[in-house]
Amino acid sequence: MIKSNIKKEFNCDIEKLWNIITDNTKYTWRSDLSKIEIIDDNHFIEYAKNNYPTYFTITSKVNLKEYKFDIENTNIKGRWIGIFRKLDNGNVLLDFTEEIETNNFIMKLLAKPYLKSQQKRYMRDLEKELNK
Description:
It is a single chain. By secondary structure, this protein is of the alpha+beta class. 27% of the residues lie in helices and 45% in strands. It has helices spanning 14-22, 105-130, and strands spanning 2-10, 33-40, 43-48, 53-62, 66-72, 77-86, 92-101. The chain has a seven-stranded antiparallel sheet, covered by helices on one side.
């Protein structure tokens, strides 16, 4: 299993942060996506800019605390865990972990740096959206 974690502190309201991250109908702030297709309350498909689909199944959604889902596409299978924690200083700490498996040898070599890059991009996009 390939695992990547990122933590980032945001100076904002936890509800605003939660709503931006969990509202799949509003995804245009994400620079890596062309669209999100919502299947039902627990399933959605993210399409990368090249229209490559990744399928998601929400496995846990505890308001203002955690957001978890399973991930699958033709190259990877795994899970994503997002933990939201309000800090004593009023900020919010996001703690995101992605764990994936792949059977492709080349993907195994590239997966960890790719995940790190994607996580950093996501946090940059999120920060831009919060600063609007």
